Amino acid sequence: MDEVAAAIADPVRRRILELLRDDARLSAGQLAERFEISRPAVSRHLRVLRESGLVRDELVGRQRIYRLDASGLVPLVHWLAGFDRPAGWEHHLDALETEVYRARRERRAGRPTERPEEHTA
């Protein structure tokens, strides 16, 4: 996951991934045409993306064709998703807050709150 995060930290590499997402298969030359940096620089970015597993390449004649392999992003996406939802005590406190609001609403409406029967000896 660290290698993937390091690979997508660069804006040129993120743009390459976007281009491959949109066009599916592009040669190194086609990709280099879309940047104002040198073709060797684009090739170095492609090598980083290939080594991180985010792109696959295929030799077709004299051209190397690149395509996106987004499966490498899945662990990073799952890790990031953990920051979007409450975890641990925060989740439990949210459930308690919901229960308090429900009990207050029922009390204002004149309905008795449901309480589980106690079975004591």
From TrEMBL:
Domain HTH arsR-type: 1-88
Matching CDD domains: HTH_ARSR (cd00090)
Gene3D superfamilies referenced in this protein's UniProt entry, alphabetically: Winged helix-like DNA-binding domain superfamily/Winged helix DNA-binding domain
GO molecular function ontology, one term from the record: DNA-binding transcription factor activity
Xref: InterPro entries: ArsR-like_HTH (IPR011991), HTH_ArsR_DNA-bd_dom (IPR001845), HTH_MetalResp_TranReg (IPR051081), WH-like_DNA-bd_sf (IPR036388), WH_DNA-bd_sf (IPR036390)
Pfam families: HTH_20
Entry keyword set: DNA-binding, Transcription, Transcription regulation
Annotated PANTHER family: TRANSCRIPTIONAL REGULATOR, ARSR FAMILY, TRANSCRIPTIONAL REPRESSOR SDPR
Record protein name field: ArsR family transcriptional regulator
